[in-house]
Amino acid sequence: MLHQNFPGQFRRLAGRLAAIGHRVRAMGERHAPGLPGIPMTRYEIRKEPKAGHRYLNTVTAAAIRGEAVAKGLVQLAKQGYRPDVVLAHPGWGEALYVKDALPQARLVSLFEFYYRAQGADVGFEPGAAVGLDTLATLTSRNLLHLMNLERCDAGVSPTHWQKSLHPARYHDKISVVHEGIDTAAMSPEPAARLTLRDGRVLKVGDPVVTYVARHLEPYRGFHVFLRALPEIQRRNPQALTVVVGGDNVSYGRKPEGAANWREKLLSEVGDRLDMTRVVFTGQLPYAAYRALLRVSAAHVYLTYPFVLSWSALEAMSCGCLLVASNTPPVAEVMRHGDNALLFDFFDQQGLVERVSEALERPGELAPLRTAARRAIRNGYGVERGLAGYMALLGASQPPTTSPKP
C-alpha cells in the first residue's frame, strides 16, 4: 500500500487484509504514522527543487516523489518482494512510476479530486478572480492526475460527485467506494457527557451548537459560520457553541493581516459575541470528539464544492442533527427535511434560521437524526467500504497459496 501519510484512508483495509492472511507491506514518507503489524518502507524527500517554470512546480515535486518510490520498489523486488497488487493514493506523485518498477503488478489508485476552473472550489467565493495564472496552474496540476488515470489499472473515488470531476473518458475506470465509517463506534449515546476544560459538563439535551473541521478556514465555511454566530447567540440565549479545529490551513490560503482565520474572524465579529458561550477547543482526542458529536443539538457543517469531510459522515453516524451547506458533495448524502437541514452556503440568515429551528424543535426533528444514521449505516458503513476495496484488489477471499517471498 502506497500513501504519503500511511495509513491514511487505508487503515482499516490494511488491517483486514493482513488479518485474513494476505501479505501486506506499506510505503510512506519518513513522517508517516505507520500501522502496528504492517511492515513499512519509508522514503525521504530531502529537497524539492522548483521547476524551470512556476506552473510546473507540482509536476516536478511529483516526479521527485515518484522517483523515490520507484527506486524503493526496485530495491524491494531485488530482495524478493514482488506484490501482486499496489493500492496507492497518487495525489502527490508517488504512484507515477509504479508500473515502470513493477510492470506485473495491478495498480489501483484512489482519486479524490480533479481540478476544475468552474463547478468546484476555484472561483466559488463571490467576486473571486480567476485569472490566467490560476487557470494555467490548474491545467498543469492536472497533468499529474491525467498520468495517474492513464497508468492505473483501476481507480476508486469516495463519492459520485468526486468521480464526476474527472474527465468522462476515464469514468469507466473509476469505481465509487467510500472507505467507510465505523458506525458501531460512531453511534448515538443518550448518556453521553463531555467535560470542558473549564469544568462545564455538556450532556444530551443541552442546547449545544457544534462545528468541527480539521482547521478553521473558508473551505469549510468557517467565515460564514462565525459571521452568523452573533445572531445565532441572540436568537438562542441559552445555547453554547463548541468549535473544534486547528489554526493552520489545510486548503486555500492563509488570511492577510492575521496569524490565522480564527484570529481574523474574531477581530471582525468578536465584539458582538458573548465569548462565555463560545468554546474553541483546538483539535480534540478521538473520545472527546465523539462525545461532543453525541451531545450536539445542532451540528453545523459547511464545505466548498470539494472533498466531503469524514467528520460530516461521522456526525451523521452519531445521529447528529446536521445543519449543512447545500453544496454538491453535501447534497449527495444529505437531503433537506429528510436527514438534515440545508441552506445556501453564503446565506448567513438561512444558517441562523436552520440552527434556531434545530434548537427550538428537537422533538419534531428527531426523525432526521434517525434518518441520518440510517443513511450512513446503509451506504457508508466500514464493512461496505472494505468489501468494495477488496473486490477491486481481487482480495475478497484469503489467498489460496502462500504469499510470494
UniProtKB/TrEMBL annotation:
UniProt domain Glycosyl transferase family: residue ranges: 21-185, 202-373
Matching CDD domains: GT4_ExpC-like
Short name of one Pfam family: Glyco_trans_4_3
Gene Ontology annotations of biological process type: lipopolysaccharide biosynthetic process
Keywords: Transferase
Gene3D superfamilies, A to Z: Glycogen Phosphorylase B
Keyword Plastid: no
Keyword Transferase: yes
Coiled-coil ranges per UniProt: none
Domain of life: Bacteria
SUPFAM superfamilies registered for this protein in UniProt: UDP-Glycosyltransferase/glycogen phosphorylase (SSF53756)
Any one GO MF annotation of this record: glycosyltransferase activity
Protein name, as recorded: Glycosyl transferases group 1
